[in-house]
Amino acid sequence: MDGLAVTGALLVLVIVTLGMGVKTVPQGYKHIVQRLGKYHGTLNPGLNFIIPYVDQVAYKITTKDIVLDIPSQEVITEDNAVIIANAVAYINIVSPEKAVYGVEDYNIAIQNLVQTALRSIVGEMSLDSALSSRDQIKAKLKAAISDDIADWGITLKTVEIQDINPSPTMQRAMEEQAAAERQRRAAVTKAEGEKQAAILEAEGRLEASRRDAQAEVVLAKASGTAIELVSSAVKGDELPVLYMLGEKYTEALKELSASGNAKTVVLPADLPQAVRGILNKV
User: Fold this and answer.
1) In CA terms, which of 89, 103, 131, 192 is 20 to 30 Å from 169?
2) pLDDT, tens digit, for every residue of 58-117?
3) pLDDT of 209-224, one tens digit each?
């Protein structure tokens, strides 16, 4: 009975030992094997064998792309504007042994590298340039950290800038600046409109005055011509002249009497003599 128990125990021990020596690695992973606490080898996907009790799988590393979220952080631009920026990085582990032995925690290490490089790159740019140059920031960011993480056996596939926006305080300042600029432009436009209106009004008055003066000249010339024609026609006879002046005199008295301010109109008793007196004074 004792012999049977010992045999069973040995059989179980053999089965367990064989199970410990056979390792199956799934596709997309690699296992790091340590022998007596020291790196011994890397198991690739598929069936693998190790020495039980001597070798052990210390790390199981994925070879698929890893997505790392880079937390948001405040970044100060060259012109002292504060913006909020975050990113996402896609990495791939090509040398698992370097990744696990080269750095304590490669995820945190890469996050810190991206954040530091992002602050450095944006710090050399103005606010307007930083807000409109995502592709440029992305290219510089990738170039800045690719060599560093290559020493850890990790490849940076790409890094994308998710958000890059002014801080809330900066946004309020920009909105106030934009509103002030719009008000300034409105005031300039209004002043320009008033200036053009005043210029046009003055030009209108000038043109009207010029035309009035031309009209006065034309009327004076016409009056002179008329007088010359009348003088030539009467040939020393005053009767036609008296008739014309009398007609004008009568029309003037008629308009005077029709005026609202006229209270009393006195007509000369001897109208021809009055006209003749005017003619003698001319």
Assistant:
1) 89
2) 999 999 999 999 999 999 999 888 889 999 999 999 999 999 999 999 999 999 999 999
3) 999 999 999 998 888 8
Residue of 74, 161, 162 lying closest to 119 (CA atoms) = 74
Distance CA 275, CA 282 (A): 11
Where b means 16+ CB within 10 Å and e means fewer, 52-86 reads: eeebbebbebeeeebebebeeeebebeeebebbbb
Bridge pairing between strands 154-166 and 55-62:
unpaired
* Token pair for 264: 């009393």
- Type of residue at 143: A
Q: Which residues contact 132 (CB under 8 A, 6 or more apart)?
A: none
Which has more pLDDT, 71 or 269? 71
pLDDT in the model for residue 276: 64
Q: Give the full edge-to-edge strand order of the sheet including 29-35.
A: 38-43, 29-35, 55-62
Q: Decide if 142 contacts 134 (C-beta within 8 A).
A: no
**Rounded distance between C-alpha atoms, residue 41 and residue 53, angstroms:** 15
Q: List, in order, residues 6 or more apart from 141 with CB less than 8 Å away.
A: 87, 114, 117, 118, 121, 159, 161
pLDDT, one tens digit per residue, over 181-190 is: 999 999 999 9
Whole-structure pTM value: 0.60
Short-list 24, 110, 28, CA closest to 64: 28
